[in-house]
Amino acid sequence: MFDLILRQANLPDGRKGLDIAISGSKISEIAPRIEARAREEIDATDRLVTPPFIDPHFHMDATLSLGLPRMNRSGTLLEGIALWGELRPTLTVDALVSRALKYCDLAVTQGLLAVRTHVDTSDPRLVTVEAMLEVKRLVAPYLDLQLVAFPQDGYYRAKDGVSSLNRALDMGVDIVGGIPHFERTMDEGRASVEALCRIAADRGLPVDMHCDETDDPLSRHVETLAAETVRFGLQGRVAGSHLTSMHSMDNYYVSKLIPLMAEAQMSVIPNPLINIMLQGRHDAYPKRRGMTRVRELMAAGLNVSFGHDCVMDPWYSMGSGDMLEVGHMAIHVAQMASLDEKAAIFQALTVNSAKTMGLEGYGLEVGCNADLVLLQARDPAEALRLKAVKLAVIRRGRVIARTPARVGQLFLDGRPEAVDASQGFAPDY
Ligand code: FE2
Asked: DSSP for 354-377?
């Protein structure tokens, strides 16, 4: 007798009609037909079952603060940073924890069960760090939260930037962050990358930097980040977030840069929603898209995952905690619409993100954690197209969220009474 069986599920790798049996917190069997019964069974016939979505780049300390203390009028990254600077002195641990927990509730219903959040260390009070450490502890039973020490106002540029970031790491923050393009000069940006990689090497921590989040093609801190990764022996432990300047770089330069990033085994984290919203703001027409070179980086073997980055905060007034919305935008901005490319985008939202975050026990194989999401879609391409409803979310073998299927009622003579966009619309591939 198993604890839970999902019957006749489709898997992201294209296998169809499989039963997935769970014992305790682990997947214990996957087979076309499991005769044994379970305490609870879920009919997944012709539905996609996937390991959970993962967001490798987020700002949990800023989320749901939209409108505080006022709205971003220009819509730019720089006004967003200035606005956050106004709000920051008024932040309290209680308010930060409350907003973050509310976001995590939403995330769970969206099948989003692991998040890497950058935590602003610019205010020496470090209430953001205190709050996010508390949130990490509170959500641990249902959501894996990783914290990055993020010097939003600059490691060197902010008055107490150096000491505050190091104190945050002393308090237990997991990862070293940075923002080299926001330092006062290119040279201080380069120096910050070197210093932060040295800290990571000394402390045995990973690195995840906001890097070159600009349209300036000469913002080349990613090159320094890759070189310092190799120099300090941090291969496989370093992520470059955003990397939007790569969109605008000279192709010849990029032909040297991408192999260097591959040598560093760097993870790459574009943030399609925020990139398409914030980049190209100084352009007239034509306007650049400003997302990094996803297709080329994937082709070079780099681990590419996608972040949500922001939900209803000074930088981005939209967002829903749905990583399929992130993937949906990635498909458009990267112009990756073939079936194989959609499969690669779906993999980036799941398997690649798990690799970025170094999650153990992740996957849809026997012995993996029984963390699964049942979608109102037949396959990854359809899930992305429909931004499919997450019908059931399972964490360590327990159903922790359910959402009813989206079915429209129709009141037309001679037409069907109900319309389910996941039934009978897409061709059989
Ligand atoms: Fe960010």
From this structure: HHHHT-SS-SSSTTSB--EEEESS
Q: Distance, CA 309 to ligand 1 centroid (Å)? A: 5
Cβ contacts of 282 within 8 Å, gap of 6 or more: 215
Residue 310 Cα to ligand 1 midpoint, Å, equals 7
Cis amide linkage into residue 56, ω under 30° from 0: no
343 CA from centroid of ligand 1 (Å) = 25
CB-CB contact of 375 with 47 (8 Å):
yes
Give me ligand 1 centre to Cα 90, in Å: 21
pLDDT tens-digit series, residues 225-240: 999 999 999 999 999 9
**Which two three-digit tokens encode residue 311?**
């939900």
360 annotated active-site: no
> Alpha-carbon distance 227 to 235, whole Å?
10
Query: Which residue among the candidates 29, 183, 213, 296 is catalytic per the annotation?
Result: 213
- Buried-exposed string 347-368: b where 16+ CB fall within 10 A, e elsewhere: bbbbbbbbbbbebeebbbeeeb
Confidence of residue 429 (pLDDT cuts 50, 70, 90): low
Query: Residue 180: its pLDDT value, please?
Result: 98
Fold of 53-357: TIM Barrel (3.20.20)
Domain 2-51+363-419, architecture per CATH: Roll (2.30)
Q: In 10 A of CB 232, how many CB atoms?
A: 18
